[in-house]
Design goal:
271 residues; Nucleoside Triphosphate Pyrophosphohydrolase; seven-stranded mixed β-sheet; globular; binds 5-O-phosphono-beta-D-ribofuranose; binds magnesium ion; ADP-ribose diphosphatase activity; transmembrane; membrane; transmembrane helix
Length: 271
């Protein structure tokens, strides 16, 4: 099994000097003793400010109780990896040590659920090279699947469609008449998809107590006559968007390479 690597990146994303405690491969697993282990405690100012998408600090004496490992009101706190442990009130990353405790820039303690729409078409009529809609993330410039967080109470199918609209088509800024047109095409495209992955994401924002999980779905335009014709327009957290060839060299954010590789293999594409 592959160990999480990006979740052990030296400097925490969007900080200059928050350095993770170094965790060698052999010490990732919680079952391996690591008495010297002193993870850096870090929660971003943005999360501490208490926006709607973030939990309260459960380590404070009078903090409200969070129901872990279950659906807690409108928030899904279950993990695709199974039941996670709670140690000293805090959920423990099921994939092991990350060198950092607290929540970093993630809002939820424990799993932070996201959804990733992988929209594909063939590059040309030979149907050998598959392309997918990739966005360039504003936070670090890396190319990625146009995914996003599942809002409280939102169903995943809605998140997939909403995030694709926001990041790859810029529905926020589209004129009203165009919006209607986009929504119609999205209805068609997102009508049928196939599940590619459900589980933990090796995201650079992960910590010992907060981590990303996702549901990745593939929406494929076999004949290039529906999505293939979409006018791509980067919006929201995206600063760029393109139909990107899926090749062995493709480098993407978090574990996104693994997801698109699965998609290429399923469609028997050359990659
Ligand atoms: C990744 O972060 C997920 O796979 C998803 O693509 C993304 C969600 O976070 P934001 O794009 O909202 O930052 O772990
Ligand atoms: Mg988004
Ligand atoms: Mg996003």
């Amino acid at each position: 099994k592959k160990l999480h690597e990006k979740a052990r990146c030296a400097i925490y994303p969007r900080t200059k000097d928050i350095k993770r405690f170094v965790v060698p491969d052999s010490k990732v697993s919680w079952t391996v003793p690591f008495p010297e282990y002193k993870p850096v405690d870090f929660t971003s100012e943005g999360v501490k400010a208490g926006p709607v998408w973030a939990d309260k600090d459960i380590r404070e004496p009078n903090a409200p109780v969070i129901k872990f490992n279950c659906i807690d009101g409108v928030i899904n706190r279950t993990s695709f990896t199974g039941k996670y442990e709670i140690v000293n009130k805090c959920p423990r990353n099921p994939e092991g040590r990350t060198g950092l405790c607290g929540r970093g820039s993630l809002g939820r303690w424990g799993p932070n659920h996201a959804a990733d729409p992988i929209v594909t078409r063939w590059k040309n009529s030979e149907k050998k090279i598959l392309q997918f809609v990739a966005v360039q993330r504003k936070d670090n410039g890396e190319w990625a699947i146009p995914g996003g967080m599942v809002d409280a109470g939102e169903v995943v199918s809605v998140t997939l469609r909403r995030e694709f609209g926001e990041e790859a088509l810029n529905t926020f800024e589209a004129p009203p008449e165009e919006k209607v047109h986009i929504e119609k095409s999205l209805d068609k495209l997102f009508h049928s998809g196939t599940e590619v992955y459900k589980g933990y994401v090796d995201d650079p924002r992960n910590t010992d107590n907060a981590w990303m999980e996702t549901v990745a779905m593939n929406f494929h335009d076999e004949n290039g006559d529906s999505v293939g014709l979409f006018k791509l327009n980067a919006g929201d957290d995206a600063m760029g968007v393109q139909w990107m060839d899926i090749t062995r060299q493709t480098k993407l954010y978090a574990s996104h390479e693994d997801f698109i590789k699965t998609v290429a293999q399923r469609h028997k594409a050359t990659w």
